[in-house]
Amino acid sequence: LESVAEWVFPLTSPSSDMPSDLAYERVTLAEEDPRRAWLEDYFQSSLKSHRLSYASDQWMPAPLIRVLKICEVRNGFINNNYQQELSRIAHSRHGHRQKVQDLEQAITLRTYLQGPKLNEALLFHGCRWETVFSILREGFDSRLGGTNFGSAFGIGTYFSTVASKADLYSQRWSDWEQRPESLAVPGELRCLVCARVALGEIF
């Protein structure tokens, strides 16, 4: 499946007719798009039970979540930054990076099909709504990691192969005080980012 994912999930650039004043392009994946089915299955199969709260002895059942829409975000600025980072990782030393066992259940891929395997994968990230739109425009900023929900493992950007773990950090639309009132959005709606991540070598 890894080789299939490399072809199915390429790094996609914005269309040539995207207005110049837009930072990114958001394209809804059609029901018949195989990427939609693959991503939804990845999402649903990773929903797990969790503790009621940090250090709690009480466990909650796996959540039941309905996926309403899956969108592909195309951002040339972010793509360029990602490719630069890939190049830096690839040139740091020769050959493939040691495979990360925690990625066994993730969708793993490779941007450069003829290049080394750099532990690239699609991973989940949950955050508040204002952060979602900031990520879509400018990408992730590890320097801001933990400013909203703490940083148990240090300052950085947190990702997970478990969608329900990332969902704990997402926000209901109705709880976002700065939400545009003109938009007819269900109050219970949450957004989860499924990001293309290059882990490189894990120490």
Question: Topology of this structure?
Answer:
Layout: H1 2-8, E1 25-28, H2 34-45, E2 50-51, E3 59-60, E4 71-74, H3 76-92, E5 107-109, E6 120-126, H4 129-138, H5 163-167, E7 192-198
Antiparallel strand pairs: 1-4, 2-3, 5-6, 6-7
What does this entry look like structurally?
By secondary structure, this protein is of the alpha+beta class. The protein has 5 helices and 7 strands. The protein has helices at residues 2-8, 34-45, 76-92, 129-138, 163-167, and strands at residues 25-28, 50-51, 59-60, 71-74, 107-109, 120-126, 192-198. A 3-stranded antiparallel beta sheet has the order 5-6-7. It has a two-stranded antiparallel ribbon with strand order 1-4. It has a two-stranded antiparallel ribbon with strand order 2-3. A hairpin with a 7-residue loop joins strand 2 and strand 3 (59-60). It is globular. The mean pLDDT is 91.
Tags for this model:
203 residues; three-stranded antiparallel β-sheet; alpha+beta
Please outline what is shown here.
By secondary structure, the chain is of the alpha+beta class. The protein has helices at 2-8, 34-45, 76-92, 129-138, 163-167; strands at 25-28, 50-51, 59-60, 71-74, 107-109, 120-126, 192-198.
Beta-strand content bin: 5-15%
Report, as a whole number of angstroms, the end-to-end distance.
26 Å
User: Mean pLDDT, nearest integer?
Assistant: 91
Sequence stretches where pLDDT stays below 50 over 5 or more residues: none
Regarding quaternary structure, what we see is single chain
General form: globular
**Helical amount:** 25-40%
Classification by helices and strands: alpha+beta
Main β sheet profile: 3 strands, antiparallel
> How would you spell out the order of helices and strands?
HEHEEEHEEHHE
Q: Please give the order of strands in the largest beta sheet.
A: 5-6-7
Based on CA atoms alone, the radius of gyration comes out at: 18 Å
How many β-strand stretches? 7
Number of helix segments?
5
